[in-house]
Amino acid sequence: MDFLRPTTWEEALAAKADRPDAVPIQGGTDVMVEINFGVRRPPALLDLNGVAELRDWSMTGGMCRLGAGVPYAVVVDRLGDVLPGLAQAARTVGSPQIRNRGSVGGNLGAASPAGDSHPPLLAAGAVVEVGSRDRGVRMIPATEFYLGVKRSALEQDELIRAVHVPPATGPQYFSKVGTRNAMVIAVCSFAIALHPGERRVGTGLGSAAPTPRRALEAEELLAAELDWEAPLDPALARRFGELCARAAAPIDDVRGTAAYRVHAIGVLARRTLAWAWTDHLGKRAA
Ligand SMILES: Cc1cc2nc3c(=O)[nH]c(=O)nc-3n(C[C@H](O)[C@H](O)[C@H](O)COP(=O)(O)OP(=O)(O)OC[C@H]3O[C@@H](n4cnc5c(N)ncnc54)[C@H](O)[C@@H]3O)c2cc1C
Question: Whose CA is nearest to atom 27 of ligand 1?
Fold first, then answer.
């Protein structure tokens, strides 16, 4: 197996263009498991750890630009105020060791429907920045990034450079159902982001369909009927939960049944909306 070690972004893109069969590796918390268990034996690995810029984050053009290699631990420690939904999700990933190595870019690269960063990225309205040597930069909205189970819009010669996430302008929550509290793949998960300036609520469902997805009808319901000055109407919250559950299209597997997942998504949606609404009204009263 060849081992390619670029030290700049340009070198990384050139290596990927010349060797489209090379599998990128950042934290390795997915890739090394697959290699160790014989799930795949790539002819080459493209180690991105030498490309320092991938581990940087910055505020750029009103967005938080998170390099693809920024580990979860940094999101938790540094970005809790700016990206609270993503930071909450990052806190639930694996163990401290996995959070030190694993990255949001790696989660995107794997494109598992159960990846924990996807729901908050969808709810916040994130955009994925990808690049290739021959075709330049593409900015792909998270809503268009996930194409199928472990399939993304990334082409063979492309690498993920960063993800651009709008800083929170309102409360955000992430909630995950698992068979225990740590080191579990989500049975299902849900993220919510209130965008008070736009009078809009963003959603993201995880582990509840072939791809992470938004609950669009549920978002439309709240956009039309939420009174942003008033306490949350329980009937509206219930309908929101029902529409989120209806957006799910899960499967039965070892972690849970489809019926359970549909039910749980409805509960998580209602619950996270109530938490966010309490914060929203609290902030207005303060
Ligand atoms: C014990 C354990 C517990 C875990 N718990 C969780 C959990 O709770 N929640 C969760 O979501 N995940 C979990 N994971 C999975 C994994 O940690 C995450 O998916 C993590 O985000 C992967 O990041 P990484 O940097 O390690 O990616 P890598 O393993 O390096 O790469 C993952 C995939 O992304 C591709 N890739 C990496 N970087 C790029 C790039 N810049 N451009 C294009 N493609 C790229 C790789 O080729 C590969 O296909 C767990 C894994 C383990 C081993």
Answer: 106
